[in-house]
Write a structure and sequence with these properties.
The structure holds two protein chains of two kinds. Chain A is mainly alpha-helical. Chain A is built from 13 helices and no strands. Chain A has a single domain, classed as Orthogonal Bundle (MetI-like fold). Chain A has helices at residues 2-35, 52-59, 61-93, 98-106, 113-123, 129-135, 151-177, 182-189, 194-222, 226-231, 243-252, 257-274, 276-283. Chain B has helices at residues 2-31, 35-40, 52-62, 65-96, 102-110, 118-130, 137-160, 165-173, 178-189, 191-207, 210-215, 224-238, 240-260, 262-274. Helix content of chain B is 79%, strand content 0%. Classes of the chains: A mainly alpha, B mainly alpha. Chains A and B meet through helix 1, helix 3, helix 4, helix 5 and helix 7 of A and helix 1, helix 4, helix 5, helix 6 and helix 7 of B. Chain A: Keywords: Cell membrane, Membrane, Transmembrane, Transmembrane helix, Transport.
Chain lengths: 287, 275
C-alpha cells in the first residue's frame, strides 16, 4: 500500500501502457504457453498431453519440412540481403549520385510485404520470367516457379531480398559515414591496397553495425509470414511452409490450437535465443 | 586504374539499379493496360491503351479496395496517435516522476516487442470473440494501439532521458501541475521523435496482414492488406490489370510518406540503431 501512496501519481501515467501490454500480450504469452501442452481444438475439452506437441515438430514430416524451409530462409537471409547491402553501401559510399541510387534500392522497403508478394507472383507467372527465358533460348530453365518445391522457397526469398536489401544498405551507409578517418589515412600513407584497407580496417570498425544488421535479418527471417502467405500459402501440399505459416495453418485452418501453440513457443525460443546478444545490448546496456 | 574502378562500379550499380526498379516499372506499365490488351500480349509488352483510371475505379468499387483503404487509414491515424500519446505519458512517468522500480515497469512494457506475433494470435482471436469485439472497428483500433506502444515507449523514454531535469524542476517550483509540465514542457521537446514514430507506426499498421486475417471477417472492418490478399486470389486470373492498379494505389500512401519524410526515415533508422 505504501508503494501505491508514494508512487500514485507516477503510476497514473505508466499504467495505461502497462495495462494494455499486460492484457493484450503478456496474458497471451502465458495462455499460449499453457495450451501448448494440451490437445485443445477449440471445441472439445482440452487434455494434457505433455511434450507431445513439441516432439511432433521434430518427427512429423510436414513440420520437419517447415523446419527445413525456415532454416533455408534464415541462412539465405543472412548471406544475400546482408552481403548485397554491404556491397552496395561500399560501392555507393563515395559515388556521385549516391542519393539517387540509394533511393532506388531503398524504394521497395516503402512497399508492404503483401504487395511485394503480389508483384512477384506476377513476375513468376508464365508470361513473366519464363517468357524472357524462352526469348533468350533457355527454354529448359522455365519452371512453374511457385509450384515446384524448393524453387518456390527460393523464388520467395528473391522477393524478400528485393524488398529488404536496401534497408541493410542504408544501415551500412550510416555505419560507414561514422567511421573515424585516421586509420584510413595512416594506412594510405603506408601504401595499403583498397582491398587490404577494407578487410583490415573497414570491416572490423563496422562490426557493431554488422551485428545489428545480422541480428535484424536473423529475427525477421524466422518470423517471415506475409510474403509466403500471399505467394503460395505454404503450398503446394504444405511444401513451402515455414514455422510461422505452419503455426497459422495448424491454428486457424485445422484448429490444432495446441500444436500451433507449441510451434509458437519454438519460434519464440529460436528468435529470442538468436537475438539474445542484440537484445541484451538494447535493454541492459542502458538500464 | 582509379578511373577504371569507378567505371566498373558505375556500370555495376546502374545495372543493379535497373534490375531493382524494373518490377515497379512493370507493375505501373501493366496497371495502365485494358484486360484485353494484357491478355493479347505478355507482361513485357508495351500498353496499346490507357486504361489506368478505369482499372482504379474497378479496383476501388468492384474490388472493394475503397472500403479497405478507408479502414486502414482510420486505423493508422487513430492507432498511431493513441499509441504515441499513451507511450509519451508512460515515458514521462518513467523518466521524470520518480517512480520506484521504474526500470521494471519499463521492462514490462518493452516485453511486448520480444515475442513473435504467433504467440498472440490464438489468445487474441479467442479473447476478441469472448469480449464481443471480434470483427469490430473499436477492436481493431485497440489492438493497433496496444501493439505500437512498446516501441514508442522505448524510443520516447530514451529521448526523454536527454532532456535536462532542470526544466521540469523549475516548472515544479513555479507550481505547474504534473500534466501541465508534460503538455507545456515535454511535448515541445519530443516533437522530432514523435514525427518519426508516427511515420513508423502508421506504416506498420497500414502494412499489417496477419492481424487483419485473424481479427476481422467482414469487408466493412477489414484492413487494406488483408483485403488485398483476398482480392489477389480472385483477381489474378480474371482481372490482373485491375489487381495491378490496386497495388499501385495501396502503395501510394507509404511511398508518399517515404518521400516526404525521407530525412526522418534515415534519422529514425539512426535512432533505432544507436538505441
Amino acid at each position: 500500500m505504501g508503494y501505491l501512496k508514494k508512487n500514485g501519481e507516477a503510476l497514473l501515467y505508466v499504467l495505461p501502457a502497462a495495462l494494455l501490454i499486460t492484457v493484450f500480450f503478456i496474458s497471451s504469452v502465458l495462455y499460449t504457453f499453457v495450451i501448448s501442452f494440451t490437445d485443445w481444438n477449440g471445441l472439445t475439452t482440452a487434455h494434457w498431453v505433455g511434450l507431445k506437441n513439441y516432439l511432433e515438430v521434430f518427427s512429423d514430416v510436414t513440420y520437419v519440412t517447415s523446419l527445413k524451409n525456415t532454416f533455408i530462409w534464415v541462412v539465405i537471409s543472412l548471406i544475400f540481403p546482408v552481403g548485397l547491402g554491404l556491397l552496395l553501401s561500399i560501392l555507393l559510399q563515395k559515388l556521385k549520385g549516391q542519393r539517387f541510387f540509394k533511393n532506388i534500392f531503398y524504394m521497395p522497403y516503402a512497399i508492404s510485404l503483401t504487395v511485394v508478394g503480389v508483384v512477384w507472383i506476377f513476375l513468376f507467372s508464365d508470361s513473366g520470367i519464363n517468357y524472357i527465358l524462352i526469348q533468350i533460348g533457355l527454354d529448359s530453365w522455365t519452371k512453374s516457379w511457385l509450384l515446384t518445391p524448393t524453387y518456390n522457397t527460393i523464388a520467395m526469398i528473391i522477393a524478400s531480398v528485393w524488398q529488404g536489401a536496401g534497408t541493410n544498405m542504408l544501415l551500412f551507409l550510416v555505419g560507414l559515414g561514422s567511421l573515424p578517418k585516421d586509420p584510413f589515412e595512416a594506412a594510405a600513407i603506408d601504401g595499403a591496397s583498397r582491398f587490404r584497407m577494407f578487410w583490415s580496417i573497414t570491416l572490423p570498425l563496422l562490426n557493431p553495425i554488422t551485428i545489428v544488421v545480422l541480428g535484424l535479418s536473423f529475427v525477421n527471417s524466422f518470423k517471415i509470414f506475409d510474403i509466403i502467405w500471399v505467394m503460395t500459402q505454404g503450398g503446394p501440399y504444405r511444401s513451402s511452409e515455414t514455422l510461422a505459416v505452419t503455426m497459422y495453418r495448424e491454428s486457424f485452418m485445422l484448429f490444432h490450437f495446441g500444436q500451433g501453440a507449441a510451434i509458437s513457443i519454438l519460434l519464440t525460443i529460436l528468435s529470442i535465443g538468436a537475438s539474445w546478444f542484440y537484445l541484451r545490448k538494447t535493454i541492459v546496456g542502458e538500464g | 586504374m582509379n578511373r577504371m574502378i569507378t567505371g566498373i562500379t558505375y556500370t555495376f550499380v546502374v545495372v543493379l539499379a535497373i534490375l531493382w526498379i524494373f518490377p515497379i516499372f512493370l507493375v505501373l506499365m501493366n496497371s495502365t493496360k485494358s484486360l484485353v490488351d494484357f491478355t493479347n500480349g505478355t507482361i513485357w509488352s508495351w500498353p496499346k491503351s490507357f486504361h489506368f483510371f478505369q482499372n482504379v475505379k474497378d479496383a476501388l468499387v468492384v474490388g472493394g479496395i475503397l472500403k479497405y483503404l478507408k479502414n486502414s487509414f482510420s486505423y493508422g491515424v487513430i492507432g498511431a496517435f493513441a499509441s504515441i500519446f499513451i507511450a509519451a505519458i508512460a515515458a514521462y512517468g518513467l523518466v521524470f516522476l520518480r517512480l520506484k522500480g521504474s526500470f521494471y515497469w519499463f521492462l514490462l512494457i518493452y516485453s511486448g516487442t520480444i515475442f513473435p506475433f504467433q504467440m498472440y494470435l490464438v489468445p487474441l482471436f479467442k479473447g476478441y470473440q469472448i469480449f464481443g469485439i471480434y470483427d469490430s472497428f473499436v477492436g481493431m483500433c485497440l489492438f493497433y494501439t496496444a501493439i505500437c506502444i512498446p516501441f514508442c515507449v522505448f524510443l520516447l523514454r530514451n529521448f526523454m532521458t536527454t532532456i535536462s531535469r532542470e526544466y521540469v524542476e523549475a516548472a515544479q517550483m513555479d507550481g505547474f501541475t504534473t500534466f501541465d509540465i508534460f503538455l507545456k514542457i515535454i511535448v515541445p521537446f519530443i516533437k522530432p521523435p514523435v514525427s518519426v514514430l508516427f511515420l513508423f507506426q502508421f506504416t506498420f499498421i497500414w502494412n499489417d496482414l496477419v492481424f487483419g486475417l485473424i481479427l476481422t471477417r467482414s469487408e466493412s472492418i477489414r484492413p487494406i492488406m488483408t483485403g488485398l490478399a483476398a482480392m489477389q486470389g480472385i483477381y489474378f486470373s480474371t482481372g490482373v490489370t485491375t489487381l495491378m492498379s490496386a497495388i499501385v494505389i495501396t502503395s501510394i500512401p507509404t511511398i508518399l510518406l517515404f518521400i516526404f519524410l525521407q530525412k526522418n526515415f534515415i534519422k529514425g533508422m539512426q535512432v533505432t540503431v544507436k538505441a
